[in-house]
Amino acid sequence: MDKLKVVKGNQLQDFDPFRVMDKLDDDLFLEEMKGRIVDTWAYSFNQDGKEVRGLSKIGVDQACREMAKKGEVIREENVEYAIDPTDKRYILFKGSASRIAVSKDGVEIVLDRTIGTKRQCVFVITKIEGITNRVNNFWYEQGSMKALRNARLRLLSEEVKTKVITIAKESGKTREIKKEDDVSTDVETDKKSESPAKTTTTKKTSKDILYEELSSYCMTDDGIDTNLMDSIIKKIAFKKDKTAVQSWNEIKNVDGQKYEKWFVGMLANWHKHVEG
Questions:
Q1: Among 9, 200, 61, which residue's Cα sits nearest to residue 121?
Q2: What are the residues whose beta carbons fall under 8 Å from the beta carbon of 213, sequence distance 6 or more?
Q3: Which helix (H) or strand (E) is 119 found in, with range?
Q4: What is the structure's pLDDT at 46?
Q5: Which of 3, 15, 39, 175 is deepest in the core (most CB within 10 A)?
């Protein structure tokens, strides 16, 4: 631990904007499923004095339409899913999408293909209770749609993403994330499965979230690709002296609560890395 000389932070971060963005997109999915009009294209929040903006699922949809206007269609392909071997309460989703050039006479040429991943809990999670034993009846829809959203997001050009975020800001279609938005992630549940006395009270740190997302992203049929995970760690994790952490093993025993602020920075770098 002495070798790392990490920056000290608060014990457990109460407000995580990325968790809120994920929860708000869950809400958008449910609203769409009910046939309601959703008009949130982007999210924004303040981090270290700077405004950070990102596309919502609806914003990704709009960006794909902008790409189509330029003759490049982003098409969802398929979704695969499997039980997380490390925690059976979670399902690992992998969605694929392709970027296709379409000529005026309808000829299609596949330019690029990519995947997006998402680790989705089958139970309701709340900020206070953690993982409950109440079934989230929409775990499949939310997990698959997020995986496909992440796949399509990776195929968007920076020009189009910036354009949609700018339009969202100018037209009032940006949702500013505040601490009060970080509330329960309850959705419609199976009331028969409710049992408050058995509710789990696990509360995750940014380190936990980072490991879950990296594990999901690096998951293969043979398990986690540790070489890929370590190559990502070198790009997103840095010690106090600015040198890169070389592998997950180097930090796996670091106290996630004691060094929460450090892992918050890694998590932010990871999300920037995924968004391209």
A1: 200
A2: 117, 119, 267, 270
A3: strand 108-121
A4: 82
A5: 175
Place of tokens 């992440």: 150
Q: pTM for this one?
A: 0.61
Query: CA torsion 61→37→142→248, rounded to 10°?
Result: 50
Give the Cβ contact number of residue 261 at 10 Å.
Answer: 15
C-alpha dist (Å) from residue 28 to 35, 42, 105, 153? 11, 12, 36, 17
Alpha helix positions (H), 34-77: 57-69
- Residue 26 half-sphere exposure toward CB, CA atoms < 13 A: 24
3-state secondary structure labels for all residues of 168-195: HHHCCCEEECCHHHCCCCCCCECHHHCC
Whether residue 132 has pLDDT greater than 80: yes
Q: Which residues of 47-64 are buried (b: 16+ CB within 10 A; e: fewer)?
A: eeeeebbbbbbbbbbbbb
How far is 43 from 225, CA to CA, in rounded Å? 32
Task: List the alpha helices (DSSP H) in 78-138.
Answer: none
| pLDDT tier, 235 (very low <50, low <70, confident <90, very high otherwise) | very high
What dihedral angle (degrees, nearest 10) is formed by the CA atoms of 245, 251, 257, 258? -70
Enumerate the domain spans of the chain. Answer: 17-203
| Tokens 């025993």, located at residue | 253
Helix crossing, 260-274 with 206-217: angle to 10°? Answer: 30
Instruction: Give the dihedral of Cα atoms 204, 207, 211, 213; nearest 10 deg.
Output: 70
